[in-house]
């Protein structure tokens, strides 16, 4: 799903729930990245990924991974 970066958070949340037909989560974790290279060792990357997935699975969490393009005002979800 691609949306404008200036979309209000409440509108984005409702659009995500409606489009993906998901129930309201107990917790929302948002990880935001950009197109700029960021180095992490494979061990750190694996621990981060494992921790996020474990937290999401155990709490009924919606995990949002965002990529922000520096050349546009759009978000890719």
Give structural attributes.
single chain; 77 residues; alpha+beta; 4-stranded mixed sheet; 4 strands; 29% strand; flat
Describe this structure in words.
- By secondary structure, the protein is an alpha+beta fold.
- The protein has one domain (2-76).
- Helix content is 39%, strand content 29%.
- The protein contains two helices and four strands, in the order E-H-E-H-E-E.
- The chain has helices spanning 9-20, 42-59, and strands at residues 2-4, 27-34, 61-68, 74-76.
- It has a four-stranded mixed beta sheet with strand order 1-4-3-2.
- A hairpin with a 5-residue loop joins strand 3 (61-68) and strand 4 (74-76).
- The longest helix has 18 residues, at 42-59.
- The protein is flat.
Largest beta-sheet details:
4 strands, mixed
Uncertain runs are none
For the termini, the CA-CA separation is 5 Å
Arithmetic mean of pLDDT: 77
Q: Strand arrangement, largest sheet?
A: 1-4-3-2
Number of helical segments with 4 or more residues: 2
Helix content bin: 25-40%
H-E order: EHEHEE
Shape: flat
Q: What is the C-alpha radius of gyration, as a whole number of Å? A: 14 Å
The structure class reads alpha+beta
Whole-number tally of structural domains: 1
Strand content: 25-35%
- Topology, number of strands: 4
């Amino acid at each position: 799903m691609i949306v404008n970066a200036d979309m209000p958070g409440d509108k984005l949340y409702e659009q995500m729930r409606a489009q993906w037909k998901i129930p309201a989560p107990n917790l929302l974790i948002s990880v935001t990245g950009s197109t700029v290279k960021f180095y992490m060792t494979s061990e750190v990357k694996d621990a981060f990924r494992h921790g996020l997935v474990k937290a999401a699975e155990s709490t009924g969490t919606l995990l949002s991974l965002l990529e922000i393009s520096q050349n546009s005002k759009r978000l890719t979800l």
